């Protein structure tokens, strides 16, 4: 009798084991994985196993293939999350004597809670998993649970809890001796979390040592061969990400750092590498994480294009993000606010201030992320300053991002930007001493963390103030380094502004040759920006600036030509 009860469990576990082996192969062998799961139904399994298999099949098909209809069919037969959660809870209760399955089920239930945005429950489960892994002697899987929890704590903005967790994980990672690939992948996970933590805090300079270690780790992993020897502890039978995915992830965090620091050519170089790698991977693997990586890379490179004066290319890449979001409702839900923010930045670059306001307002409505909210408010404030007639709305926004009092986030970079915005407003209002105080604060903060774009913007604005006050020598001391830094980034708008000031400064100082050279530079920058402006506004994708509601438009209708003012460029 006992033998008859156990028999289905044995064949089920064997098929499931094969399916998991094929799913985690590098590259994943999804067709064979699906065949193994489908074979479960041939044995007419009990209802709970049938439901779980439908859930697993639906998940594999959804994440790794384009057969969304079949995936949906399997998920419906499993009754989706509502029935999966009690099923998983029951399985967790009865699996404590089988470490691998107990850990795997805890990961699965935590993932379901994460998909439902219940991060508190997910964190609790990952904490339970970490303690269980410690008890069964699996420091490797304990670290995986803790690092996964750290990722969710970052999403929840519980930064005070992240630091001690990272300290603990660092000790575990360094002390654990096991499969070399598993050890290096743990180190990559740990360092990615550390880099993300620093970048979220706007600490661009502080992140450099971690980023260097991360790049060394990924080079080490690329030289290691997959070890088929199974770990002695069954709880260690987990892999975080395939090597190829880790490589793209390291490129991605390098791009994020380069963008924040103002090394835009470096950001471009690593984006190109990452996108090329992604294209190769997506031919074999339809995992949704690859589309997420692609969208985040595009979001960053779009911001680079807008700074370097390539608005037409940026607009086409925004349209590409729209297309990717059309293919995945979940991707759109997670990135809609960022997409409208990018459109708002594009609108500023082509002087469509009403559209910029509408895009930023839409983005604010869609985000619950505090750093993104602060970034959007900062840019919306710059729109109101440029318009010059939105005083009530402007002061209301500035109260909410006051860098001197109760600033809403811990980001060093965003707080420095808030000082710059106040300096810009004071400049337009003719309150030059006040403007200088705010801008010197920005300079102090941006120099401390190598925030090159903010440094360049602050220097050129200070140079403008000194020029207006008639202090030409001090103005020159600001504008010359601003121009050098803007050329290094390169930041086209700051170069345009700096060259105009240098032209007037040298004329005032009687430096005729230098004034002529600066005038020629200004003319060249103006022509480049004007041509790019016309090219961008002539694209059919330019109509995206009017989209403020619902999913991304499926088709962009062409328009006759540019309809925006070019005054801001001339």
UniProtKB/TrEMBL annotation:
SUPFAM superfamilies this protein is in?
A: TPR-like
- What are its GO biological-process terms? cell division; chromosome segregation; mitotic sister chromatid cohesion
Q: Where in the cell is it found?
A: Nucleus, Nucleoplasm
Which Gene Ontology cellular component annotation is one that this UniProt entry carries?
Answer: nucleoplasm
InterPro entries on file: MAU2, TPR-like_helical_dom_sf
State one Pfam family annotation: Cohesin_load
Please state the protein's primary subcellular location: nucleus
Recorded hits in Gene3D superfamilies, A to Z, give: Tetratricopeptide repeat domain (1.25.40.10)
Q: Which UniProt keywords apply?
A: Cell cycle, Cell division, Chromosome partition, Mitosis, Nucleus
The record's comment on protein family reads: Belongs to the SCC4/mau-2 family.
Q: By what name is this protein known?
A: MAU2 chromatid cohesion factor homolog
The organism encoding this protein is: Gasterosteus aculeatus aculeatus
């Amino acid at each position: 009798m006992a033998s008859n009860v156990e028999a289905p469990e044995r064949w089920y576990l064997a098929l499931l084991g094969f399916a998991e082996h094929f799913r985690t192969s590098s590259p994943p062998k999804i067709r064979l994985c699906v065949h193994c799961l489908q074979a479960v139904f041939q044995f007419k399994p009990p209802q709970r196993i049938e439901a779980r298999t439908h859930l697993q099949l639906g998940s594999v098909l959804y994440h790794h293939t384009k057969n969304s209809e079949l995936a949906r069919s399997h998920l419906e037969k499993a009754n989706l999350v509502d029935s999966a959660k009690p099923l998983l809870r029951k399985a967790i209760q009865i699996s404590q004597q089988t470490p691998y399955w107990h850990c795997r089920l805890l990961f699965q239930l935590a993932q379901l809670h994460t998909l439902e945005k219940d991060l508190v429950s997910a964190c609790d489960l990952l904490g339970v998993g970490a303690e269980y892994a410690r008890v069964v002697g699996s420091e490797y899987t304990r670290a995986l649970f803790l690092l996964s929890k750290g990722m969710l704590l970052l999403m929840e903005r519980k930064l005070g809890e992240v630091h001690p967790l990272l300290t603990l994980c660092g000790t575990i990672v360094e002390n654990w001796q096991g499969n070399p690939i598993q050890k290096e992948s743990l180190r990559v996970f740990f360092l990615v979390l550390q880099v993300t933590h620093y970048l979220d805090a706007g600490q661009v300079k502080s992140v450099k040592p971690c980023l260097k270690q991360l790049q060394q780790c990924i080079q080490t992993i690329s030289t290691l061969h997959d070890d088929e020897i199974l770990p002695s502890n069954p709880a260690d039978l987990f892999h975080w990400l395939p090597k190829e995915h880790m490589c793209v992830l390291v490129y991605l965090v390098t791009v994020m750092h380069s963008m924040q620091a103002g090394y835009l050519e470096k950001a471009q170089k690593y984006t190109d590498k990452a996108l090329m790698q992604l294209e190769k991977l997506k031919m074999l693997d339809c995992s949704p994480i690859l589309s997420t990586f692609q969208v985040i890379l595009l979001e960053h490179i779009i911001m680079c294009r807008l700074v370097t004066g390539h608005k037409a290319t940026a607009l086409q890449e925004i349209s590409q993000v729209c297309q990717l979001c059309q293919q995945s409702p979940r991707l759109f839900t997670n990135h809609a606010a960022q997409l409208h923010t990018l459109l708002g930045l594009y609108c500023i670059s082509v002087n469509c201030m009403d559209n910029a306001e509408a895009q930023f307002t839409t983005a604010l409505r869609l985000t619950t992320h505090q750093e993104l909210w602060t970034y959007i408010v900062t840019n919306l404030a710059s729109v109101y300053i440029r318009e010059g007639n939105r005083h009530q709305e402007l002061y209301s926004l500035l109260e909410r991002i006051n860098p001197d009092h109760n600033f809403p986030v811990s980001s060093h970079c965003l707080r420095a930007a808030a000082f710059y915005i106040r300096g810009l407003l004071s400049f337009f209002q003719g309150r030059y001493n006040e403007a200088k105080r705010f801008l010197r604060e920005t300079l102090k903060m941006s120099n401390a963390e190598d925030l090159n774009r903010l440094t360049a913007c602050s220097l050129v604005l200070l140079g403008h103030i000194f020029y207006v006050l008639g202090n030409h020598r001090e103005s020159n001391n600001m504008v010359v380094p601003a121009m050098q830094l803007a050329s290094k980034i390169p930041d086209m708008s700051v170069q345009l502004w700096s060259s105009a000031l240098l032209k007037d400064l040298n004329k005032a100082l009687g430096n005729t040759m230098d004034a002529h050279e600066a005038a020629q530079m200004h003319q060249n920058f103006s022509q480049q920006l004007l041509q790019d402006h016309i090219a961008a506004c002539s694209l059919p994708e330019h109509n995206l600036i009017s989209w403020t509601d619902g999913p991304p438009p499926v088709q962009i209708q062409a328009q006759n030509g540019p309809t925006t003012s070019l005054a801001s460029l001339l």
